[in-house]
Amino acid sequence: MKYMSCVLLSLAALGAPAGAQTCQPSAVTPYLNLNGTNSWAVKASASLNTGSTVVLGPQPVSGSWSWSGCGASGSSREQTLKLTASCTATATYTNSCGARTVQAYTFTVWPALAANAGKYIMVDQFGYLPTMKKVAVLRWPRVGYDSSEFYWPGRLQVVNSATGAVVYDWWPQEWKNRQIDESSGDQAWTFDFSQVTTPGTYEIVDVDRNQRSARFEIGDNVYRNVLVQAVRTFFYQRAGQAKNAAQAGVGWADGASHLKPGQDTQARRFLDKNNAATARDLRGGWYDAGDLNKYTSWAAGYVDDLLDAYVQNPTVWTDDFNLPESYNGIPDLLDEAKWGMDWLVRMQNADGSLLSIVGLAGASPPSAATDPSYYGDASTSATLAAAAAFAHGAKVFGSLNSTAMKTYAADLQARAIRAWNWASANPGVVFYNNDASRGTAGLGAGQQETDDAGRARMKLYAAIQLYAATGDAAYRNHVDANYTSEPMFAQWYVSAYNAGSARALLYYASLSGATASVAGNIRTRFLDMWGRSDYGGWGAVDSQKDPYRAYIEGYPWGSNSTKANAGTLFAEESYYGISRHSADEVAAAAAGYLHYLHGVNPFGKVYLTNMTSFGAERSVNQIFHSWFADGSALWDSAETSTYGPAPGILVGGPNHGQWDWDSRCPGISPKCGSSRPAPPYGQPPQKSYLDFNDGWPLQSWPISENSNGYQSAYIRLLARFVK
To answer: Which residues form the Glycoside hydrolase family domain (predicted)?
Structure first.
């Protein structure tokens, strides 16, 4: 009977419908990731610059894979490809029952730019929003290292890069009757192609002169991937954070730094190094810049900037920036701000004061550092800066729909009040790091301490944030009694160099409980000063003072952050609804500074590192940084080393009058060469830049070093133009 049952069952199976006998193919979802650093996108095609890197990671995860095309091969589900020509990569997926599914990835790879492309016709290499004012700048270099070159533009065409179709043509307009601009040494023309609004990839071509711009895109969200990379640079700057390949990209994976014995979890007081009882757990936080030190006052300012960027553009910030905290229900920008805030919490003493600095050893990669970490004593300036950040964080994190974040916010508010009370009782406690006369030589690099006026300003900012968070009239009274000490009142002056002061006062003026007369005075004074014809705001825009449409007064250390801060001052007018100009005028003025950083400058250089995979044909290749150091086979240059620096880092930019080689050159070292490199030396201000990362004796750091402050200023501006 058992045998007969088996036979009958077998016959029944043979007689089943054909579909029931067939192994069915599985659905495949195509995912790809630019450079291994973005969040994964469900896409099966992309248009990219030659040399771009993409990571393919189709799903499902189980089953087997085989690949062909575009350099893909083998059986690994994830494939990392560096693309140099248009191609199709084909994945064949075999499921557990043997059925196969084919998934194709199609890539359009733009050819490498001609040598002269982008040399004389400057555009934003990432692109333009469809309704944005679009102005290319054309240049004939008359003064500086390139003054022997010649370009006189003819009639220009906007050409669709994919089809070759001419979509607009017209003549460029002379800038200021053929004047030579002192800041750049260039004679300039502008070419307004705002009429072109159809999404696509384009170039501006001067057919008669055989010149063209870099490529650029027009689209609804051309800066989205740029913003993601700009924010992710803080992730690369995290101390004590493991950076695995899935999140950092294979080129910038590294172990958690500064967690060895005697380092951040056991940091000792610098002025009492041999006393084990001084050990503190001060892990976390960010490397401040190219050095790997952590400074309380500056870190608090970066936290404030990131929180502001969130508050002023809340819909921009998603939870998919490929950070360790991604997909936790909190916008990733706030996760990054919290990383910095958590370190500030560890720096606070029981009495409310905050330690001023933690000095970290440098290494490439950072996880290789072995020397101990030391901290500096508490100071009034560090405590006031943190009080402002704690209060700001209390308001922002408390607004989230999260019980855990509301608890966190309550703790931050209590910390802010304790910090304020300690600083009020101890108004002049200072700590000067890296100062031989005070016994602190070797602790940190930059000097974080400020003067009496600086502490007064920091206390005013803390009062503004504490009033916003608590509504306590005592903080409002402090603001009302002291706001006229700020530059726009005391010196009748507003510029990109005191943008933080102006922004803080405008924020206070926006608060519902602010004293009405004070709020009115702030708004009026700002608009009067920023609108003056002889100042660097609307007066510079109206008079077309800078042919590159991004005027600042001089090019000192960190000029790129000054550019970003100038742009945000225009944007503040729209955000607070107080402008005397139209929304389009404000947007165009602010965007001019963004376009400068994206390539509308005398070098045609995107001042962000390693952005080929994200749309920039000519971006920064080298940066002064302990990790991405000169001579590193892996990270020195995006052009010549295996990986180059991590993407999206804003460098300091042109530095006129503050850069020089070691005063003992050329005799002190063969590294000097026979003469100073020019550029950056002896150039007009906007040309005082070189894409280099040499240490001593050429000392590139005043030009090519990064700073989290530069980065946060850029993020604030960029976020205005992202959906």
So the answer is: 223-713
